[in-house]
Every structure is written in C-alpha cells, then in structure tokens.
Amino acid sequence: MRVLMVAPTPFFGDRGCHVRILEETRALRARGVEVLVATYHVGRDLPEVATVRTPRLPWVRRLGVGFSVHKPYLDLLLLVAAARAARRFRPDVVHGHLHEGAVLGPCLGRLLGRPTVADLQGSLTGELVDHGALPAGGPLPALSRRLERALLRWPGRILASSGAFARELVTRWGVPPDRVVSLPDGVDPDAFRPGLHADDRRGALGLVGKRVVVFLGVLTPYQGVDDLLAAWPLVVRAVPDAHLLLMGYPNEDRYRAEVRRQGLDRSVTLTGRIPYGEAGRHLGLGDVAVSPKRSTSEANGKLLNYMACGLPTVAYDGPVARENLGDAGVFVPLGDRTALATALVGLLADAGERKRRGEALRERAVAEFGWPALAERLVETYRALGRD
Whose CA is closest to 217, among 284, 264, 309, 279? Predict the structure, then answer.
C-alpha cells in the first residue's frame, strides 16, 4: 500500500502536528506501508521520511505557528508539487493533514481517482477564535463555521485526534458517524521512557538540587504559558527549591522578558527549541510535568510524552486531558491560576504521590497509546475506504 500525505506546514519543526505526521509515518512503515510526505519548502528534512517539497521561495525563510499571509499561495504550490509527485508515486490513498489538507487532499483524490482521509486536531473555527484570529461572536465566526461544515463533507474519512473532537464532529458539525474515526495521538514508549536524563545539561540549566517542573511545547498564551508564569510565584513561595523548565518555541524572547519583569530569573529557565530526538532526555530532568492548554477539544500530544516518561502531570481540566491522563492525572479548572499553583505544590511536596501517579501514567501510555496498535487502526481505515 502507498500513502501520499499532504502536510501544509513547515515539516519537520519539533511541534505537535509534525510529531504526529512523523510517528504515523514510522508506524505505517513498520507495517509495510510506503509513505511519501508532500510539504512546504521550509522545514527540516528527516532521513527516515521520504519527502517532496514546494519550490523554494527566497522571501519565505520561516513560518511561525498559526496563520501566515504566505500560506494561501504556498498551498497552491503544494497542490501542484503533490500532484506531480503522485504521478510517479501512484498512491492508493491521499492523507491530508490539518484543515488545509482536508481541502488539498480531496482535490488531489479527485484528480487521481483515489480515496482521501483528513487528519484533524480540532475545529478550525475554534482554533481561530482561541488564537484571537477571529472574534468569539458575530458574522466572521459564523461564516467560518459554514465554510468548515462544507469542507468536512469532502474527505472519505476524518481522523479525529481525540475522542472529544470525534464526538464534536458528529454532534456539532453533522458528519455521519461512519465517516469519523477516532485516532488519538500516540507515543513511542521506547523513545519516551523513565530513566532518560540529559545529566550533562543539569548544571548549565540551573537544576542542581532543584525540584523541577517541566513544560515542553509551543510557547503561546493558547498553551497556557502566561497562566503558568502567573502561577509560578505562588509555587516558589511554597516550595523555595522549585524550578520551572520551559522548553519550546516560538516567543522565547517575549517570555524571557516576562520572567525578568516578574523577578523569576532564579527559578525559571527557557531552553528554546528542543529537537524531537532529544525530547525524552530533557523531560527526564523533571519531577512533575504541566500542560495548562486552554482548549477543550483540540489534541494535546505533549501529555502522552509526559505519561510515557512516567511524569506525574497537572493539566487544565477538559475531555481531552481526561481522555489521555485518566484517573492518574491531576486536573484544575480552566484558567484558575491559583488552583494550578496549588496542584503543582502538592505534587512537588509529595514524592510518594509523584511515584504512584507517574507509574500509573507510564502504564497507561504503553497500553493505550502505543503507535503499533494505532497504526493497525489507521491501516484498517485505508482498507475500508478501498471497500466503499
């Protein structure tokens, strides 16, 4: 079987949706499926992923997280590049990622006479509102919802990266249940496991003798970084040797300035981007993990990495967090910074509770979110399309 993945994003960039594309590709290859990824010209090549890219445009050297004025014409170039590659590759299935991929994939599918799958993390309109690109009410989000409902009719199957979003597709967006497949984010339990340590960096990062809270992901208000920094003085007041290790990008300079403004330099360290291959070792520096993501339905893959590393985890309450963490997670109300600080203090103060929750989360990650089992579900989805 051959699968053409259309990825309208600067793959590979050490962030959530890119990790999903990479791990799907690896898991499918282990099952004998040949995968070709079509993506933008910006991004990092990975030797294990066969990739075709759009023509290089010298004025587009990088793309940040979220909307960019460059994306409309980059998507047109991607459609052309993918179509040319498909003539040689001759895919059996076209697999589009993100909402642009839910449009480009079916366009290619109709051109090639092949079935299509859309791989979505959450609602496009919800994401635009949460990121501040659209107001919460009025004609613009209403128009966006109409467009989103229309594009969801195009793919043969929609892969929802959380059970909450799978239910939303049916109940809110009117997608027939037989076209929705719940395929949660997964984790490689060998790459992310307890006992990995970047000990050579402990001193350089100011972590010697500290109890460490780790965050690894995109540094934006949407991911709760502002809430975390606002809560942190309460944590340090209760646990003087607590240290927050913020790992990720973009906006590092902005958040470093905020750390200095609050006088938190001695208890907060920002590392910048951590290569995905090093993520497990850096998470191993932590005693507790945190993810105050401000979304109720979008996938949250970092939770699975925390779990696989055996890290007790604090998260804002919501269906996705509960779906991933189960009973072993520590949940606080969305936006409640005081409760966030209290939960972190509670875990930092109780080594036995950290051990109990961490072991339970590791066991859950291996049993329910390992990529081998998820890859079987994905292959069966492809086969079902061929039988339609």
Answer: 279
Question: Which pTM does this prediction carry?
Answer: 0.84
* Cα-based distances in Å from 66 to 14, 29, 180: 15, 29, 25
Alpha-carbon gap, residue 11 to 53, rounded angstroms? 10
**Cis peptide bond prior to 194, omega within 30° of 0:** no
Tokens of 347: 């875990």
Q: Which two structure tokens, joined as six digits, stand for 4?
A: 């053409």
Q: What are the pLDDT digits (tens) for 155-198?
A: 999 999 888 899 999 999 999 999 999 999 999 999 999 988 77
Question: Sign of the C-alpha dihedral, residues 20, 21, 22, 26?
Answer: positive
Cα distance between residue 96 and residue 83, in whole Å:
13
Taking only the tens place, the pLDDT of each residue in 201-245 is 888 898 999 999 999 999 999 999 999 999 999 999 999 999 999
The Cα–Cα gap between 263 and 259 comes to 6
Indicate the length of the chain as a whole number: 388
Strands 268-272 and 51-53: unpaired
Q: How far apart are CA 308 and CA 108, in angstroms?
A: 37
Give the separation between CA 345 and CA 22, rounded to whole angstroms: 35
Give the number of other Cβ atoms within 10 Å of residue 58's Cβ. Answer: 6
Q: Which of 73, 79, 84 is nearest to 107 (CA)?
A: 79
What long-range pairs does 100-106 form, CB within 8 A, spacing at least 24?
A: 100/8, 100/71, 100/75, 101/6, 101/7, 101/8, 102/151, 102/152, 102/154, 102/155, 102/158, 103/75, 103/151, 103/154, 104/6, 104/8, 104/75, 104/78, 104/79, 105/6, 105/155, 106/154, 106/155
Mean pLDDT of 303-311: 97
Q: What is the pLDDT of residue 264?
A: 96
Query: In this structure, which amino acid lies at residue 236?
Result: V
